[in-house]
Amino acid sequence: MSGSSRLFSPFSLRGVTFPNRIVVSPMQMYLAPDAVATDWHFQHLAKYAVGGAGCVFGEVLCVEPRGRNTHWDLGIWDDAQVPPLARIAAFLREAGAVPAAQIGHCGAKASRQRPFDGHGPLGPDDAARGEPPWTPLGPTDDPAAEGYLVPHALTAAEIATIVDQFAAGTRRIDAAGYDFLEVHAAHGYLIHSFYSPISNRRTDGYGGDRRGRMRLALEIAEAVRGNWPDDKPLSYRLSCVDGMEGGWTIEDTVALARELRARGVDTIDCSSRGVRGATSLANLEASRRPAVAGYQVPYAEHVRRETGIPTMAVGLILTPRQAERILEREQADLVLLAREALVDPHWALRAARELEPDAGWQRWPPSWAWWLAQRERTGIEYPDGWE
Ligand SMILES: Cc1cc2nc3c(=O)[nH]c(=O)nc-3n(C[C@H](O)[C@H](O)[C@H](O)COP(=O)(O)O)c2cc1C
Question: What whole-number distance in Å separates Cα of residue 276 and Cα of residue 199?
Fold first, then answer.
């Protein structure tokens, strides 16, 4: 293959052109004092843009303090949170990547310890070390998982306030210079907990049948779209299946995706699971079966085929050839990497070498490429035992 891989073909949504199909997926760092981005966040994201990804997502930006997973999440409820995010967006653009932001509310899964501090609900020991619990918010007062904090069941008026908070957060993300926005509506967080029949047992207009359960997702889509420029694309990350008896199914996702598209959503980011578990991967982990590479790609394929909406595939996409095959088979329009990007922030640059060997070092930053090409021309001989 030379010079014509699909992975390195551009893709456009509204007025934004992605230079290639490689997207770095949102990854929380749990390292934001006062919910404001620091140099850690800057370097974490900058290296993927320099590493050739066509689009780089920052971690979920929470629309209000109670919507944070942990005391260390990033927020977007205050103008003071904008400048360091603007610095990140400007650098990503300068390095050639589409700067992308994710906005969300963790709902009943809020008020937790960081994964590396235990990942459980916050309690008295956490309070003693300066991280007191707060009451999380949910569709009902059912805890998000066994042993989790009892949430406050949102009233209709409180729901309206949260929808407004999504609108205000969207305006700040636009002001910060991001070109692509995703609403986090997956992994058991607030929006997912409303559309999932496992977690939403409300009997008012925000619960009951599928239409009622989808209402929050659709109201937020309208509020976000109404505050996001027409020439900038909007994505929704969905948990395409709950993976549990009586849960949300892929056919429900197709119905929701159609309603989202009617409200100006341009692409569906196809994730899965997360109700009644610590993470979206928790019930896979609990099944004690090895995870399957590309395990969520069939959801992206199904939604794309059934609705015609462009999709994003995510989950154990590991090698350039695997990513190329997903695009060749028209299973998705963009491929997302999270953990493999942590392993190799230059994944996209390496993929270019692998898929387009004739291009040499052309896709690499020129100041690196010159030296790397020189080393290649010279060749390397290894003394015995060194290779
Ligand atoms: C460190 C870390 C933090 C994450 N934070 C977020 C997040 O902020 N928002 C989100 O939607 N998913 C988050 N995820 C999930 C990833 O975006 C991705 O969907 C998941 O890891 C599967 O992709 P992978 O197999 O390439 O890692 C996170 C994953 C990791 C590893």
Answer: 8
Give the Cα separation of 303 and 53 in Å (integer): 24
pLDDT bin (cut points 50, 70, 90) of residue 277 is confident
H-state helical runs in the chain:
39-50, 82-94, 124-128, 156-175, 190-195, 210-226, 250-262, 282-286, 297-307, 320-328, 339-343, 347-355, 366-378
- Whole-prediction pTM value? 0.97
Q: What are phi and psi of 209, to 5 degrees?
A: -75, 180
Mean pLDDT of the chain: 96
Q: Which of 22, 23, 24, 27 to mutate to test the pocket of ligand 1 (most atoms within 8 A of CB)?
A: 27
Instruction: Tell me the CA–centroid distance for residue 60 and ligand 1, in Å.
Output: 10
**What are the phi and psi torsion angles at 47 (to 5°)?**
-70, -30
Q: In the chain, pLDDT over 90 holds for what percent of residues? A: 93
DSSP symbol at 358: G
- Name the superfamily (CATH) of residues 11-378: Aldolase class I (3.20.20.70)
**Atom nearest to 340 CA in ligand 1:** 26
At 234 the three-state DSSP class reads: strand
Using the mean position of ligand 1's atoms as its centre, give its distance from the Cα of residue 312 in Å. 14
User: How many CB atoms are located within 10 Å of the residue 380 CB?
Assistant: 8
